[in-house]
Amino acid sequence: MTEISDSARRLPPAVEQTVLRWGDLGGQWGVNRSVAQIQALLFLSDSPLTAEDIAETLGLARSNVSNSLKELLAWKLIYRIPVRGDRRDHYQAETDLWQMATKVAQGRKAREIDPLVAAINDAVANIDAKDSGVSPEVKARLKRMHAFVGTVDSWYQQMLDVPPDTLMRLIKMGSKVVGLLRFVGRKDQEGGSRQQSS
């Protein structure tokens, strides 16, 4: 975990540790460390900050801060906030955790999942041609992958319409949902067995 330089503005220890740890996690998730640190700093800030405030607080180069802010604006994880009497841009983070998670998920899906779905759709559309050169086993695997990705994509779209409070209740239910699904599955199997025997 990299330390914030001594020349930087002092942050409360809990905030500094969170900003540093968020930067490390960002790196593990494929997000530039500076981008993640800036997002965490703005999230934990009581008031909007200028690019100069951010650069000074985190000990980052102004150009690095500028590029990172552009990326965060593109992800819609931060906003420009006007401050009366100051012509500089001020920035504030999205503080609704569900909105943050949704925006990150939408961005990652558009960058990583949607191209995969398009590639699999194209592959499946072409595998049934007589001269495709694809074995029956590989065709079956591609079709299973196509069905799986389609189901996950459909589930994701449905989850976007579920209110955050409902999603939180569902998440808090945890293993109870799995138990309910097992119970429903057993009942379905019992019903099917009874119909076959009659």
Can I get a quick summary?
The protein has eight helices and three strands, in the order ααβααββαααα. It is mostly helical and 198 residues long. The protein has two domains: 13-93, Orthogonal Bundle (Arc Repressor Mutant, subunit A); 97-191, no CATH class.
The rounded distance between the terminal residues' Cα atoms is 67 Å
The total strand number stands at: 3
Average predicted confidence as pLDDT: 86
Name the poorly predicted regions: none
Percent of residues in beta strands: 5-15%
- The count of helical stretches stands at 8
Q: Can you put this structure into words, describing what you see?
A:
- The protein is mostly helical.
- The protein has 2 domains: 13-93, Arc Repressor Mutant, subunit A; 97-191, no CATH class.
- It is 69% helix and 8% strand.
- The chain has helices at residues 13-28, 33-43, 51-58, 62-74, 97-126, 136-160, 164-173, 175-197, and strands at 49-50, 78-83, 86-93.
- It has a 3-stranded antiparallel sheet with strand order 1-3-2.
- A hairpin with a 2-residue loop joins strand 2 (78-83) and strand 3.
- The radius of gyration is 24 Å and the shape is extended.
- The relative contact order is 0.06.
